[in-house]
Amino acid sequence: MEKRCHKCKVVKPLVEFHKLTKSKDGYQAKCKECKKQYHLQNKDRTSLRNKQRYQENKEEIKKRANQYYHENKEKCNKRKKEYYLKNADSIKSNVKKWRLENLDYVKWSRKHHYEEHKDRILNSQKKYYQENKDKILQRNKEYRIKNADRVKENKSKYHQRRKNDPVYKYSRILRGNIWSSYKRNGFNKSNNTEKILGCTLIWFFEEWLSNKYNPPKTHIDHIVPVSLSKTKDEVCALNHFSNMQVLDANDNLSKNNKYLSLAGLSKVLANHPNPTLIKKIISRSKIEMYQTVQNEVADDYDQVISELQNQIKVLKN
Ligand SMILES: [Zn+2]
Q1: What three-state secondary structure class fits 290?
Q2: Centre of ligand 1 from the C-alpha of residue 199, in Å
Q3: CB under 8 A, 24+ apart: contacts of 25-34
Q4: What's the Cα-to-Cα distance from 49 to each of 35, 39, 52, 62, rounded to whole Å?
Q5: How many angstroms separate the alpha carbon of residue 96 from the centre of ligand 1?
Q6: Residue 61: partners with Cβ closer than 8 Å, 6 or more residues away
Q7: Can you tell me the distance from the alpha carbon of 290 to that of 262, in angstroms, rounded to the nearest whole number?
Q8: Tell me, what's the pLDDT at 62?
Q9: What is the pLDDT of residue 315?
Q10: What is the rounded distance in angstroms from the CA atom of residue 213 to the CA atom of residue 263?
Q11: Ligand 1 center to residue 193 CA distance, Å?
């Protein structure tokens, strides 16, 4: 029941030794205390060596750890939980420190993870909201009361930004418009607004719309109406920047999705990445085409129009 330590040469009871199944008597040669001292004295060297060893055998180590975990799941989880509870404070502060030092990576990985699992995340959020609606609303209300100053400050920041940064303001409206154009046709907007548009928001407002968007006096109008689309891809195609124009609010209402200006259409076809799809959408619809005022278009206007009409006729037949 006793054993002599190789290091300190003291005879100690077996409980003072760590187990080692490979050895003859089932215990390590050095006592626990000596092991501990050795570890404390060589901490840096050991950790460096372990790091090196890990880098050299990464795949093998990962594979083995993974296998061990799956064979001992309960034990591992219990140990992990115990360790966490015991060291919660230092773990939390370490994590916080690490996150602050690696902010870019944290942001990137969060975004990446979201993109990768978007559908699942949105679904489970929705489900959670529906199941806990009362609780959430109550909590939000309490938060607003408790943090009234903060809420007020955020609100004023938001209004300030809307006031001073038109691109920000308009992009929020546009995002809403695009979102509702998906909804109206029975789909969910699942892509980033700039991805759908096919350009940056700044370029869209400043260059494509020439800074002429100024609600509520003017509206952003879909040249080819989104209501003609039958699939999610078509909704996306019709939200491309080339299908957007600024219209006077009144014009937009009178247009009423029944008419399509040929001049507008030729602009779409010239700038859209998939003009064939646009033609296909129009050709199966009953939308009426009309020519805008003659004097505002180029010399080859008639030619462009007749070509277009022929193309669409071909698609229709
Ligand atoms: Zn010893």
Answers
A1: strand
A2: 71
A3: 27/3, 29/5, 30/5, 30/6, 31/5, 31/7, 33/8, 34/5, 34/7, 34/8
A4: 17, 13, 5, 17
A5: 39
A6: 54
A7: 6
A8: 93
A9: 61
A10: 20
A11: 67
